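User: Batch of two.

Assistant: Item 1 of 2:
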Amino acid sequence: MQCLAISRLGVFSLALLSAVPALAQRGITSAPFGQTPEGEQAQLFTLVNSNGVRARISNFGGVVVSLEVPDKNGKLGDVVLGFDSLEGYLGEHPYFGSLIGRYGNRIAKGRFTLDGRTYSLAVNNGPNALHGGIQGFNRRIWGASTFANETGVGLRLRLISAAGEEGYPGTLAVQVDYTLTDDDALRIDYHATTDAPTVVNLTNHSYFNLKDAGKSAILGHEVQIQAGHYTPVDETLIPTGELAPVLDTPFDFQAPAKIGSRIDASDQQIRFGGGYDHNWVFNRRTGSDLEHLVTVHEPTSGRVMEVSTTEPGVQFYTGNFLDGSNVGKGGTVYHRRHGFCFETQHFPDSPNQAAFPSTTFRPGEALDSTTIYRFSVR
């Protein structure tokens, strides 16, 4: 089987998939997805595993355009929000499906100090920097190649972020592998190196709705998060530095609870976020091994999503700022709370919070992080 590979310089070539055991329906195809205003060609890659589960991912922003998994009756259905064409992703949207970098989440006032030098970033979220800036990784064409191995089929994306880009120091080389596995999981492996000290926090910003991909509200989804603490925020959604216990608060999902059960509680933190838009601090049993830490169940479809990660925290966001201005796939209008995100991550504003796990990244170190979204039915 031949698959299109795109080098970092944008040169197209043909590459053979590695030999793998013959499994029914497995495959990878690619097709043009449109051009950026700069004239760069985006591609859309379709990954199909041995069960017929299908993921469509673009090398523009590493966007997960669609993810089709079975419901309790075996019927495949999309479970992520997004657009039918590149045009939607080129416009204003809340990071649907995107790879986020250099720094996922917020940095207070767009400033941080590293090794005695203060760096200024693009401010694009009120007074703060958000998700890598104005031209973050979500708006870049990534070099792309396909692969297959004993676990599934995948897409490898590569990007070079030059020193000074969006104000960040150091030239950062990033590789992200998406693997659609034969046990119906989308695995994301992040790897990076740098030639100078910098800060890095990579994540994916897919919006999920396990019932109908954003046609209705997500309030009936049942969520369990293995986290005894979260990071409270100020009115601009910057952490205060406290690790607050979730017990006896609307943030306690240690036992399964419906998203909508306490989302409008009379609580200052709920008011600040318009619902849930906070970082949960995982109860990790290991330092940085891969652990299953989040479970989501949608009763109508029976779909279950299990999130495993090596990261110390997760931003649980319930689409509070979706306002119907984005018309997505098939003409679906994305209204408030019609999608949720589980952005596995280091904590927001870590470069300015000495007590948080460090996001400082130095030459000679290798950043390696893995997150897996595994789907089943109940």
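Item 2 of 2:
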Amino acid sequence: MRMQTVRGTSDILPEDQRYWNFIFNVINSSAEINGFEKIETPIIEYLGLFEKGTGETTEVVSKQMFEVKRLSNEPSDDKEKQVLRPEITPGIVRAYLNHGMNQWPQPVQVFSIGPCFRYEKPQAGRYRQFWQGDFESFGTDDPATDARMISLAWGIIKDLRIRNVKLEINTIGCSNCRSQVLDSLTNYFSKKKAILCKDCLSRYNKNPLRILDCKKVNCQKATKDMIPMKDQVCEHCQDHFSQVIDFLKDSNVPYSISNNLVRGFDYYTRTIFEIGLKSDIKRQSTLLGGGRYDNLIETYGGRPTPAIGFGFGIERIINIIKRQKIKVEIAEKTQVFVAQLGEDAKRKALTILEWLKTEGISARAALSKNTLKSQLKMADKLKAEYAIIIGQREFLDGTAIIRSMNEGIQEVVDQEKLMDKLKEKLHLK
């Protein structure tokens, strides 16, 4: 009997538990503040769930699935293959349909943390059993939702204190223009086939979008003269992407548009994004990835429902935290909580949050909560020292309310003097 872990798996020893707890605390805190509720789905699902959604021709489904071997006396009506899940999103979509969550007030926002399984070559940051964090939002195609999910993802990585990171975004079009995009790519790469690698020649016939993601030098050279994806999609998708960019600018989230950015699963549409390390060519550099998948629920037999989400590997993030020697023992204290009332005030609150982070002041907000009472309750739970309150009147007047959460005393200050006043109260001057 072999007394070793199965290849591609690992034990989580007591000395490493602090890293896991640190990440789970950041995930749970971000979820609660932004109005995401926890959901857990089985690690065993039917193979068809991933063939339909993730994509039958993707490497994950065609080469990396773990099939569950069943007993010979299992009921004969249960003939469809069962597998260990390679990702979490399809299971959450199945649960959304199975439990009538499409009848709930929209958007439905959920998150999950759990193990996934893929049969691939084990290496640093890539395991056969790995843990994944996952955030999903169902029910709205508003570009502001795309920007908010991207901002949430960026905030999680920043709260984990990982340095030297970049955010890349792109659009790959909707169901109305996807065939047009694929035809355009097929025509373009037909003149580049001589320099494509063997895998990309196969992708050329199945899904030429995947050629854009190839890391081999010749294949990357082949994409150099390609028309940017944002200019190939339909006018509606161009307008949607333009609005996402405007919202990201309003939120002061740094980004770059990457024409070669695609995602590995077939269900993605329109906005896609990744967060990774700026310069880590030889190692696995992607920390988090996601995008919009407006057709997936309909693929599973539900009503057309827009959706967007992202996922990230826990072990890979822990490896980066260790490499960057980030100390995780002490939980970060919330100094300021930013509360808002109204859409204009919400946008101003995003700006103030960025000001506070720039000044090194620990700040939180609950942008999904619409009442002042619920937001101040969250500020109390986080033990914030002060709350900044921006309502419609304050937005128009260019003022803000600073409230002492311990004493209940509040005062009105000009927004231009807000940072100086807060630093004075926090004894940072």
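The radius of gyration is 23 Å.
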